[in-house]
Amino acid sequence: MALQESFDRLNILFNYSVMSTGLMLESVPRGRIMAAARKRFEKFGYRATSIALIARDAGIAVGTIYLYFRNKEQILVALFDESNARWMAEAARAANQAGSAEERLLRVAQASIERNQRDQLLRAVMNRDLEMILAPLCEEFRDKVLRHNVEVMADVIREGVRTGELRSTDPEKTAFILWTTADALLLQNQFPYEELLPTYVGIVRDGLRNPEGLGTQPRKSPGAIKGKDKK
What we know:
The chain is mainly α. The chain contains 10 helices and no strands.
């Protein structure tokens, strides 16, 4: 009888512990931890940020973080995925608006500039800032961004070839060349990326243009990339 009462008490304690954990998970959103981690990563870098500091900035106990994340690296991966998901949505939105293939590619380029300016963590990753991130994680994230952008741009190029606006070319290979070249311009330190992009866009436009001019629409000047895209 006494043994059964002991088991009952343990069962009650276990159920209370599970319920308390559930309440804790509800009262401390995962996003609060990620927001605190993002600010600290952006300001101090990955190496100088600890779980304890993230917990302090989020106003929670250190142990609470481990209810959501195994370690600091997993928080960084979650932030990478969050940034990439936002960029994927923005790139798709820019590419899918009505317009010529050139206009749509220009919108993707403009969106990439604005995203790079807004997202400090993303900029650190794309610049391979090793004070901010770990190299293996950086390359994995860059590969995800590359694959998605090649896919988005290839769809636009494929449609441009189909309508006759662009010359016959392999959409995937062309998109890969366009993105990786723009990425190299982003990584160099001699000129601001925003200043180089209009010249790059002009070169690309002339290279992809169908010499017969079939299915073309009036083109924007390369300088249009500097301003906000008009709705």
